[in-house]
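Posted in: Structural Biology > Protein-Ligand Complexes

Title: Requesting predicted complex, pyridoxal-5'-phosphate in pocket

I'd be grateful if someone could produce the 3D structure tokens for the following input. Sequence and ligand are given below.
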Amino acid sequence: MKYVSTRTQSQPLSFSQALAKGLASDGGLFVPEIFPSVDVASFSAEATIPDFAAQLLAPFLVGDDLQSRLAPICKAAFNFPIPLRFFGETPVNTGKSSSSGPAAVLELFHGPTAAFKDVGARFLAESIGRIPSETVRTVIVATSGDTGGAVGGAFVGQRGIEVLILFPKGKISARQEKQIACWGQNIKAFAVQGTFDDCQKIVKEALADSQLCRTKNFISANSISIGRLLPQMMYYAKSSLEFFAARGLAPNFIIPTGNLGNAVAALWAKRIGFPIGRVVLATNANRSISDFFESGVWKPSKTLATLANAMDVGNPSNMERLRMLYPTPDVLARDVQALAVSDDEIKSEIVSAFKSSGDIICPHTATAYGAQRKLAVTNAVVVATAHPSKFETIVEPLIGRTIPIPPALERLLSRNSVFTEIAPTLSALKNSLR
Ligand SMILES: *Cc1c(COP(=O)(O)O)cnc(C)c1O
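-- Reply #1 --
Done. Output follows.
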């Protein structure tokens, strides 16, 4: 299996090479050269997550140095549950469509930093840790909130790897900051006096600085890394089989969407043959994706700040992968829909989920509930991307009570924060690394 760029006919690379490189030389994103055909009947919905993931990902690593290490990588990375929870009566195989509300919720937030990014970040870390290297490698990442914590937690304690996380000072929640700055050891956090865009600019400049690259041996842990995207197919493939076994129908997934990484993974799982119906992209007020579905014209826009801040993206980078998968608007429309959900609707979904079932949902997850309701999607699986306790300042006033914090998150929040404050320039970062 080789990986090629979404843009030009680039040199095909192996999985490990694509992982180390991050972005293709022409600036495009890596995608599999061909999608393997998978014998879906040979998969069991009852398999453990590591076993299921290793079987699913095996054809994507054929011929790669990491192929023989796939089982231990999955075992180390996926050490937390990813439950598909049905609503209402215990699932029976009726072969009938569900009525109004969502049929089930896929909970992706039971990892160490309580957001779905743990899945991709932990697989990436375990993979990179097993690629032989003579020099210390430096993982560098800019974060607007959730990515930094997931990457820090995934790489902490790994020998031969140093991690630099850049976050915009004062622009993320207190709990998000704690998850980035609590790790110590080989994880270094930098509070940049600027915006997320400044952080991203410094990372890009660092990756392009040949002198710095010679001493640092950089690897990007950005969300466009193929090593973060591939493993996300696992929970869609597995839960689609669980849903099919319970209801006799293929589920439609409603996915809170920002950079489109999570949704592209679902569509890749569909492409290789798993029983997945439609995929609905639920966005916040950043409308570039829903506008594209309405008009057929792709026009990235400026980023708006919303209550679902991890989805505040005006120019989703994985659009290139989506458009490669569906080259024309009519084939895209057969499988995929998109809908923007406003901050007011996010708030009312949080309130109504709590009132109707006692469920406490995060602002990102609320966009999926909103899209399900507005489009009246049947056999809907809403995807829950983060634990609500990470966004307690938004959710608690709406539901009028305190949200219990999961034990893993509680442990992180009780640690000390250590970070270095820097001016928003590459030279400031270089100085503090000296
Ligand atoms: C990152 C994130 C998203 C958006 O995922 P994409 O893959 O960028 O579309 C949604 N919800 C939460 C909680 C996130 O952290």
